[in-house]
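not sure who needs this but someone in the group chat was asking about WGS project CAEQ00000000 data, annotated contig 1667 from Trypanosoma congolense so here u go. i didnt clean anything up, its just raw.
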Amino acid sequence: MEEVRESTTTNPRERIERMMQQQGRKKSDRSDTAEVLHHLQESLQQKEKEYWQLHHESTLDGGSLKTRFKYREVAPENFTLSVEEILAQDDRQLNMLVPMNCYAAYLTPVDNRRDRIKVEKRRRRGFREIDSSRSSRRYGDVSKTALVDPNMEEEEGVKWSQNVRASLRRLHEDANIDSGERRRDNVERNNGVPAAVRVAVAPRGRGEYRQGNEGVGPKKLRPEGKVKLSGGKRRHGE
């Protein structure tokens, strides 16, 4: 009987001690978790600070836009596609004529010329045209991928084509004006020293320039690295 009484008197104490020990463990676990989170936040802030302190690797749009990624210039290529075809044809028809792998930015001018010859041969032989009303498992409702109605009246189509070409002509003119203004601004920012003179005396290094032949002007070396692609829907090469 005495042993039973002792066990009944000691059991609550043991339970209380166990509960206190468990609470202590939970508190230590919470403190460890908070400490780990604190270290992770400090590491992330340090990496962000280092990232924003990186030197710019390249510039775009005539030097007006700086970027921390390397770009290389890619010659525009439309692979015989006119502006009207790119806007009026659906995605299925465009990919049948010029597959998307032709537009990979890492391809060399030799590869582009080879693909262009293939497209020209495909045009001469004639390729199968599929009506946009036929749905596709890959593209779904193909007719929605065309930006204009290809079945418009002839007079309306001629007027639309003229408007498109006039808009493109204005865009090219504005781009030439903007590039000329940027060149003048660059000369003024560099105390009136022309770019060709600054290139001739510039130190060699990353994103370097080499002086061209007499009367030609400086030529920019294409930096090595990954190529960034714009995420446009159409595959117009520009």
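also The first helix runs from residue 2 to 52. if thats useful
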